[in-house]
Amino acid sequence: MSMTPVEDAIxxxxxxxTLEIYNDSAKHAHHKAMQGSVSRETHFRISITxxxxxxxxxxxxxxxxxxxLKEELDRDGGIHAxxxxxxxxxxxxxxxxxxxxxxxxxIAEIEQDRG
Length: 115
Known about the structure:
Elements: H1 5-14, E1 18-23, H2 25-28, E2 43-49, H3 58-68, H4 70-74, E3 81-87, H5 89-102
Parallel strand pairs: 2-3
Antiparallel strand pairs: 1-2
């Protein structure tokens, strides 16, 4: 059992290898739509890596997550906004490799005399 129903629902259904959940509600508390809301859990950013997403396009992946969180989305004072990043383990591996390549040290540096 986790700290949030969101984490429980995603973990149980998708068995993610990576799951990151960020509560961004405080950043949006001043928005007009949030006036009068007593909930401190309305805006989330979620990154999920799961084999369950294999061979599915992003819209289908997002629908899977929205279906899992339907109760929280429909509940008065529940989730108001959800930002999703969904990928497979292969996609995550390629992304990590790409990021490492971008951070690689140069093999050689050549300085030219501009004098």
